[in-house]
Amino acid sequence: MIKISENAQKYIYKLLSKKKKNTHIKIFVINPGTEKAECEIEYLYQKNVNKKYKKFKFTKFNVYIKKIHIPFLRSSEIKLIQNNLNFELILRSPYIKKNVKSSFTSFEEKINYFIEMNINPFLYSHGGKIILIQVNKKKEVIIKFQGGCNGCSMVSSTLKNMVEKRLLDEFPSLTLVRDITDHKPNIYSYY
Questions:
Q1: Which whole-number Å values give the CA distances from 91 to 8, 29, 37, 81, in the listed order?
Q2: Which residues sit opposite 70 in a β-bridge?
């Protein structure tokens, strides 16, 4: 799936050894399947690991990837490059800009994929995104706004006129989209 060079593994392990115990690495894609797609590497704390991630074991650490991003990250490589006195991890992923169709195992995964591909790219331009919390038995989609969308004065319009409309158009069996965000304006709010 993902290859990490021996030097990059040593470097990542050295970085992790300076963090709290049970700190891992997560790799994810912003704007997957679009021309603006980018790969990112971040720390992931054990308490934030959930069923949406798949674990990849390496000799001294684990890498977690959201299951929805796996098709975009296949054949990826991480290498360590030294520039002057600095070290840099380089992640190359040939499929991040391709519209990859994945085999989904659940209705919820199809909805999550649609959100990542068709809704979040617009919200990223405002510094925000939505995350899917669940699809309940009544076929209601429960979401949460994050980043610039949390506390934005336009969030109710975005929810009704963009998020809900696009999801209900794409998935006619859905009945409602409900936002459970505790919206409090902050310095990151878009408006």
A1: 10, 11, 13, 11
A2: none
What is the identity of the amino acid at 140? E
Tens-place pLDDT, residues 65-94: 988 888 889 899 999 998 777 888 888 988
Rounded to two decimals, what is the model's pTM?
A: 0.59
Domains defined along the chain, listed by start: 2-92 (2.60.300.12), 107-179 (3.30.300.130)
Tens digit of each residue's pLDDT (9 = 90 or more) over 115-165: 887 898 888 877 888 989 999 999 999 999 888 888 777 888 888 999 999
